[in-house]
Amino acid sequence: MRYRYDAERRLRFKTVELIIEQAPWSPPATRIDGVTLMGVRVGAKEVALQGQVKEAGGKWNPAERVWEMLYSRALALGLKDRIEKRRVSNSRNPKRPNSRN
Length: 101
Known about the structure:
There is one protein chain. This protein is of the alpha+beta class. It has a domain at about 25-85: 2-Layer Sandwich (Alpha-Beta Plaits), CATH 3.30.70. The protein contains two helices and seven strands. It has helices at about 45-55, 70-75; strands at about 1-5, 10-15, 30, 35-40, 60, 65-70, 85. The strands form two sheets. Strands 3, 4, 5, 6 and 7 form a five-stranded antiparallel beta sheet that branches. The termini are close together. The model is unreliable at about 90-95 (pLDDT under 50).
């Protein structure tokens, strides 16, 4: 259930969504200034690798708990198998993904 608002006419519409098909889909990678960033998984105890990622321009994303870096630099470091697919929430509150509103 969702709400749509028409400020001009001062109306609120309650809508429902009907799913008629399900198919695999991957969201696009994060883009900043036209550059594709990928999430790379590095373990907490892999301090040396974290240093290499930082040196290659990687930035820690605490919300996703991954290092974000250029795809080409991840490949250059041999981290292709550590690249994470982006997770997409279908909830308005990602902290409680199983809640129903």
